[in-house]
Specification:
Blueprint (H helix, E strand, L loop, with lengths): L1 H25 L4 H18 L3 H16 L8
Helix pairs in contact: 1-2, 1-3, 2-3
Length: about 80
């Protein structure tokens, strides 16, 4: 059972990451902002390798920021 729930969480995080990458790619923002968002997505991906639940929480926060139009400042 534990393995099934872990697999479902993995699939959900993978689908959400794919959606997040698409949304970031399609944003009409300066390139620096897009790069900052891409770095955040890479960080979430890295966390997912050893803390899937933590990655899901980080991804939820990132998606909420995107929904609410809160973007990091570009370089």
């Amino acid at each position: 059972m534990e393995r099934d729930s872990q697999l479902q969480l993995y699939q959900a995080v993978a689908a959400r990451l794919k959606e997040a990458h698409t949304r970031v790619r399609e944003l009409q923002v300066p390139e620096g902002v897009r790069m900052a968002l891409s770095r955040k997505l890479l960080a979430v991906t890295a966390v997912a390798k050893h803390d899937l639940a933590g990655a899901a929480r980080r991804l939820d926060r990132l998606m909420k920021d995107l929904d609410e139009g809160r973007f990091p400042e570009g370089d």
